[in-house]
Structures are given as structure tokens and as C-alpha cells.
Amino acid sequence: MKLSRRSLLRTVAIGGVGALSFPFFRTLNSAAASMPLPALSPITEFDLFAAPASFQLLPGTTTHGLGFNGQIAAPVIRGKQGQPLRIRFHNRLDEPTTIHWHGVRLPLAMDGVPDVTQAPILPGESFIYEFTPPDAGTFWYHPHVNSIEQLGRGLVGPLVIDEAEDPGFDQDLVLLLKNWNLQSNGEFGELSVKRYAARQGTPGQTFSVNGQSEPEYAVHAGAAVRLRLINADNTWPYELTLQGAPAQILSKDANPIVPERFEGYTLGAGMRLDLGLLVPNQPGQVLELKHKHKVLARLIVMPSTSAPRLTLPRLPENPIAEPDLNQAEKLFFSFEWDAISDEQGRALFWNLKGPKAQRPAYCTNANLLASLARNKSYIFTLRNNTQYPHPIHLHGHTFKVLESDKRPITPYYADTVLLEKHEQVSIAFVADNPGRWMFHCHVIEHMAMGLVGMIEVV
Ligand code: C2O
Ligand code: CU
Ligand code: CU
Predict the structure, then answer these.
(1) Is the domain of 157 the same as that of 24?
(2) Which of 51, 374, 377, 397 could form a disulfide with 328 if both were Cys (CB 3.0 to 4.6 A apart)?
């Protein structure tokens, strides 16, 4: 067999994979640098395992949870915009699972929704996810099976897609936020309690950033730092501030905005926010990332010999199709509170109504909400008829958040939008990715109990 240069490189690089719990991460283009080659598209490969894991979240205790590659926090999967990314996923859990790449516009078959885009991956099985991310930015990954338990016990991880051209930050920090629902002995409490599930969702009381309580990170005086905040929690909307230095919001979800001063932001479950920070030239100073009054993480300013940066790098826009608002078809969706049961007698506290479906359904494919014509523009009006906030997420697409009936909005692109209680928000997008895509609240219990449906693009 004649090996192409690309498959030869791949063979060489893969040859060394051994230890199962060891995260393997490599870009297969380094050896190619010295020789002129026809356009070679390097593949970034990663082995990812989901397995039971023990870790310490409360001092002096052990938590028996679930981890990616045996780690809390999960490994950062890092790819590059426009370059193929291949993740060999191995299910070492004792139940089926899938992995969903939250926010990535990818082909349906890679979206990780059980029984819709793929068969569930059974214990002991592997599945290769391969896609070429068209957009750069901060994303995350998580299972889409038994989500209250699988995400709640630890299976959440960051996915960073680097810009095709390096924007030039001195430092890039990923901060994955999650709360843990623990008893005092470190073991999990009940992850879904009915009286909370019917309200804002069952909260975990132990805060963490990258799996640690109040971690400290060194930043260099005068440096231009990018902070990637990811809300990977099942429930909490974090009310974030950064104390000690002015920061700018650079992007929402993965999408750059015209930078604006960061004066505090509510980050609902599933949402991301990238901040840019020019670190004050004061070694020893401590900056605090907070949720309300709770410190989540500290940034410690270290001395530096480099000249202080004067401006923050700018992020390039992602290639999102601009919806045609004049031609767009308008569809109405409402998010309702409804204490009813399904045919099996399970409680469904929540209901997502769309043009096609008016009855609630459990977490699947059953609830086809709307059928969209490929490449046509749509405006979705999302009405929250409940007294709780809901971060609403659409798979496979990036939408433009247009307006709210409660607050001024400068339109921006996102994949998850937080509806405040009784708020109505309009979003618009081009239905340019064919398939059946999930549309759901990212408060996981709300999703599991009715705030879920499918949007079909044909
Ligand atoms: Cu984070 Cu169905 O998504
Ligand atoms: Cu998603
Ligand atoms: Cu909700």
C-alpha cells in the first residue's frame, strides 16, 4: 500500500498511544514543516474516555463521580478553525452515552444526540467524532444521555477552537464553572429534587472553577489576557463580575462582538463569555472573579519584564450567514409551566410549544416543533411564560439575538440565549444546516421534564 504523506504522518503519530487514562493530544503537522507539500490539512486528534473517577471537591473527602480521562477538570480539547478535528471517544461508563459538541456548527451525524443523530454508545464501545469547525471560539462538550446524572457527576469539558490566525493574546485561560451537589461526606446528594425541578432547577452548593474551589492563576503585569468563561453547570445562572481591573467582553458564546466594558453579566447554563483583560502593571495585585459575593477564582499579578500591552487584540468574526430579516418567516414558541404527566405517569413540569407541537414530551425526538426550509431565514419569537429564567439552546446553528421586550439588546450572535422570567426575545438565523436539531432549555432538569423539542431543517 502506498501511504500518502498524510496517512504516514498519522501512522507515526498514533503509534505511541498506550496508556488509556493518559490524554493524548497532538497536531499531526509538525514534521511536515520543512518540506513544500500540496495543501495538507492537519488533523488534530484526541482520545477521550468517559469513566468513573474519584476526586476531592470538599477538603478531606472523596467524591465518586464521572470524569473525562480520569480528570476533574476535564481536558481542554483544542482544535483549529477550518481544520479537521477527530476525537476517538471511548465509553467506559456502565451505561450508554454520547458526546455533544455544544455550539459547534457541524454535520448532524456528529451532534451526539442519541437515537436522532447516532445510536447511543454502549459501555465498552467507541465512537469517532470527526468534524471541521467553521467557527473559532469557546465551546464545550458533554453527553446527551441521562444528562442530569452524567453532567451532574462531572462529564463536562471545554472545547476551544483557535482562530485560523492567532489573534495574539499573551495568555489564554479557560475557566469552566460548575457547582456540585454534595453531601458533607463528599458523596453526591440527590441531583434532582422535585420541588426544585419544578422551579429553577436543583442547585449544587459547592462552587468550582476547573474542578477546584477558588483556584488561583498567575497573570503577568501588563499582559493581554483572554479569559474563557464557560457555564457547564446543570442549573446555576452565574452573576459574574471581575474585581480589581476593567475587562472587556470580547465574545458571547463563541461569537465576537464589538468589545464592550464588562460590568457584570448573567451567564446561564450552557453559555460562554470571553473577556479581554489588560493586566494592571502592579505585581502582587489580586483580581477576583465572583458570582455575586462568592469568589470563584483569583488572578494573581506576577512581575513581568515585557513592556505592558496597550490594547487588546481584536477577534475576527465567524462566518455566520446573515439572516434576511425582511424575507424571514416568523415562528412563535412559548415556554410554559404545566404540572402534568406523560403517558407513563412521569411528571412533566415544563412544556415547550411550537408551531407544530403543543403537547409536552420527554427529552426527545418526539416533540417536533417546527419544520424549516433549508437556506431560508427565520425569526423565532421566544416567549417565557414562567417565572424562572431559561437559557434556550439550539443545536447545529448560530442565531442572532435581535431584541427583547424587557431590555435593550445590541444584536449579537449566540447559540444559547437566556430568557428572563416573563421575557420575550426574538432570534433570527438562516436554516442552513440540514437535519433534526434539538432545541431546549439548558437547565438540565427543565430539558428532562418538558422544555425540549426538535427543529427540523429539510
Ligand atoms: Cu449543551 Cu443539547 O446541549
Ligand atoms: Cu448544543
Ligand atoms: Cu429552563
Answers:
(1) yes
(2) 377
Read out DSSP for 234-271? SSPPEEEEEESS-EEEEEETTEEEEEEE---EEE-TT-
Return the closest-CA partner of residue 372 out of 415, 323, 322, 430.
430
How many domains is the chain partitioned into structurally? 3
CB within 6 Å of ligand 1 — which residues? 100, 102, 142, 144, 270, 393, 395, 438, 440, 442
Q: Whose CA is nearest to atom 1 of ligand 1?
A: 102
Sheet with 100-102, edge to edge strand ranges:
77-80, 157-162, 137-142, 100-102
Backbone φ/ψ region at 335: left (φ over 0), alpha (ψ -120 to 50), beta: beta
Going residue by residue through the chain (458 aa), what tens digit of pLDDT does each one get?
333 333 333 322 332 232 333 333 333 333 333 444 445 567 899 999 999 999 999 999 999 999 999 888 899 999 999 999 999 999 999 999 999 999 999 999 999 999 999 999 999 999 999 999 999 999 999 999 999 999 999 999 999 999 999 999 999 999 999 999 999 999 999 999 989 999 999 999 999 999 999 999 999 999 999 999 999 999 999 999 999 999 999 999 999 999 999 999 999 999 999 999 999 999 999 999 999 999 999 999 999 989 999 999 999 999 999 999 999 999 999 999 987 777 777 778 888 888 887 665 554 556 889 999 999 999 999 999 999 999 999 999 999 999 999 999 999 999 999 999 999 999 999 999 999 999 999 999 999 988 999 999 99
Q: In this structure, is residue 176 part of a structural domain? A: yes
- Tell me: do 113 and 199 sit in the same domain: no
Q: What is the CATH number of the domain that holds 235?
A: 2.60.40.420
Those residues whose beta carbon sits under 5 angstroms from the ion ligand 2 are: 102, 395
- Residue 131 sits in the same domain as residue 29: yes
Q: Note whether 148 and 59 are same-domain residues.
A: yes
328 alpha carbon to ligand 3 midpoint, in Å?
Answer: 27
Ligand 1 mean position to 119 CA, how many Å?
Answer: 17
**Are both 104 and 32 inside the same structural domain?**
yes
Distance (Å) from CA 289 to ligand 2 centroid: 26
Q: Are residues 338 and 222 in the same domain?
A: no
Element holding 403 (H helix, E strand): strand 399-404
Is 203 in the same domain as 297? yes
**Contact (CB, 8 A) for 51 and 34:** no
The answer to whether residue 321 is domain-embedded is no
The model carries a pTM of 0.90
Q: Are residues 46 and 155 in the same domain?
A: yes
- Quick one: how far is CA 326 from the chain centroid? 31
Q: Which range marks the domain in which residue 35 is found? A: 5-162
Any idea which ligand is nearest the CA of 391? Answer: 3
d(CA 436, CA 454): 6
Task: Quote the ligand 2 centre to 126 CA distance (angstroms).
Answer: 21
The residue among 130, 233, 133 whose CA lies nearest residue 179 is 233
